[in-house]
Amino acid sequence: MPRLIVLMTVTAALLSACQTDLNVEELPFSCTGPSDCLSGFECVPVGDGSELKQCVRVGANVDASDATADARDVAQDAERDTSVDVGPDSADTSDVTDAVDTTDTTDTPSDADSCANITCSSGEQCVDGACVEAECTTDNECGFREVCEDNQCTSLVYGSIVIEDTTSQGALDCKATSPSPGADIFGVQLFAADGTPIAMGQVDEANLTPIAGNQYDDPSVINSATSATCTGDEQESPEYVSLGCNGATLRVVFSAAGSSIELTDGMVVEIGEYDSACDQFATDESYQVYKCTRSGDHCIVIASGLSGQSSVNL
Ligand SMILES: [Ca+2]
């Protein structure tokens, strides 16, 4: 007896749920003949070449693409029908009520993953189970500061900067005996447009040019910097990274409260370079700065030909 009560309770719950959510207009019911469908509906092939049929409103214009997309739903519904009777049932007055409810004329996608099993041809993308012309297939088809992602033009969101050393190989600073070849970066700091400090930069990626004589080849020293302005301490105990000339790169990100900071127009990045900021020595080293996405996949040059301490507008 307890088992029967449980069964009845589950069945009642299932039927209740079905009656609440069911909308006959939107659910494709499988059928084998006219007698399987409600009054006002007819049993027609789904249109994808299979033997599956479904009940549709008499005279309804069956969309071939919808029929293709819904073929899987028909199969799923058929499977569902074997466990819970949600098909047309003249004894079920709530279903009949839903069947004649024509107020809902919206074409709701039957499945959130309606594109999961659909492969579109080149130049097309799947939207709600149908292949349509893609908005883009390459970045070149998108606007300024946009990229093509998932066939849609998306605005770039910047979240890192790259400092690239552009010191020529023939520069005095790049000789093998130089203890600090290339630009010598001790801190990178982000400021708001009004000059308010926002965050110190942290090294996310470094590709230094290896030079045997480089005594300052640890990029992580930047992560301990508290300012991008020379305070004098650097002279007593120089803590900077020498990039190593000609193409070496350092990518820096900024974060606050554990979240990456988006770099927006108007912000300013201060780049602390040791030789000019702290020593006041003339230097023949140079670098340029890029603004990049957080991952570094997309970058644009925002300042070039820099030497020594620099303020760069983002
Ligand atoms: Ca140097």
UniProtKB/TrEMBL annotation:
It comes from Persicimonas caeni. The lineage of its organism: Bacteria, Deltaproteobacteria, Bradymonadales, Bradymonadaceae, Persicimonas. Residues 88-110 have a biased composition (Low complexity). This is Uncharacterized protein. Residues 69-83 have a biased composition (Basic and acidic residues). It comes from the Bacteria. Residues 67-110 are annotated as: Disordered.
